[in-house]
Amino acid sequence: MVSEDQLIQRVRRRFASTRDGLMVGIGDDAAVLRPGAGKEWVVTTDAFLENVHFVRSVHPAKSVGYKALARATSDIAAMGARARYFFLTLGLPDPCTGAWLDDFLDGMARAARRFGLILAGGDTTKYPVIVASLTVLGEIDRGKAILRSGARPGDFLCVSGKLGGAELGLRLIQQKLQKYKKWPRFLKKHYYPEPRLALGEWLVARRCATSMIDTSDGLSTDLGHICQASGVGAIVWAAKIPMVRVPPELGRLRIDPLGLALNGGEDYELLFTVPKKRAKRLPRKLGGVPITVIGEITREKKVILLGPDGSSMPLQPEGWDPFRKKA
Q1: CB-based contact 78:270 (threshold 8 Å)
Q2: Residue from 229, 217, 224, 230 nearest 305 by CA
Q3: What is the pLDDT of the chain when averaged over all its residues?
Q4: Given CA atoms 260, 263, 265, 271 in this order, what sign does their dihedral have?
Q5: Which terminus, N or C, of the chain has the lesser number of Cβ atoms within 10 Å?
Q6: Residue 159 belongs to what domain range?
């Protein structure tokens, strides 16, 4: 058995806790933060729940810790902000307060270092299943945050990376293939996603993007969020969508790469719009991450998928929705 104070100290030892702007951190009733001159806070919260977002017997504890912080930080990237601080609220059952917690914290500490985050506080409690609630703070120049609501007719629709990789990893796990040595590279995006912080900051610095969102729920759903917030529609060119390669050995599973790319969630790539006159500023890659133009924003408030053969069909939002009734 461990006390709450002992648990907090184990958490505290794994994370850096000093930075300019953090006036009071772990150890007091609340943190005290000071933004830089001319800056604004960008704040997001995210829950990561056992048996909803991960399964303890399947997902390594290190990947759970890493992914819990990565998925929350992706919202900071989607606004174009720089990641600065985070808060962790953790509910744990007794069996997870030992080795499992150590591995979880190791994974989260690795993510914090990679994303440039400082742990500023949080809370711990005993709970029947694992519950991690993250609050992440980013910093951005005043008035520069990129919103979902800025897309305009004629803008190009762009996406980073390749789509469908995280969903492919999930399909492998559902088929109990995750322990086979040939599949680790296809599981990486599901276990260890990468929020596109550098790209988000680059787009803000060069004033390229008019709207932006991360693909946490899938392209079809997240594009719908941009269109609804901006009061526009879109045409998506199916032939241009950068899709994950499905290994031929998985042919028996009949996995459709386009379906993965359109509706698979948790890729945490950036989906953004750019005026045509600024599109020339976009590099083909940024930090090794490809950037692809996949469509165009329209006045007509419909989202259309244009096939390689010229056929078109409505693109329904069929990505992740925790409240959607399953057929």
Answers
A1: yes
A2: 224
A3: 93
A4: positive
A5: C
A6: 148-314
Closest CA to 267 of 244, 240, 287: 244
Claim to verify: residue 99 and residue 164 sit in the same structural domain: no
Alpha helices in the chain (DSSP H): 4-13, 61-77, 99-115, 165-174, 184-191, 197-205, 219-230, 257-263
What's the confidence (pLDDT) of residue 198? 98
Residue 253 is assigned to a structural domain of this protein: yes
Residue 276, classed as helix, strand or coil, is helix
- CATH code for the domain of 118: 3.30.1330.10
206 & 61 share domain: no
Structure tokens at 236: 């998506």
Last residue of a domain, one of 114, 141, 168: 141
pLDDT digits (tens, 9 = 90+) for 126-160: 999 999 999 999 999 999 999 999 999 999 999 99
Looking at the structure, tell me whether residues 294 and 175 fall in a common domain: yes
Asked if residue 326 is part of any domain, the answer here is: no
3-state SS assignment for residue 159: strand
pLDDT at 316 over 80: yes
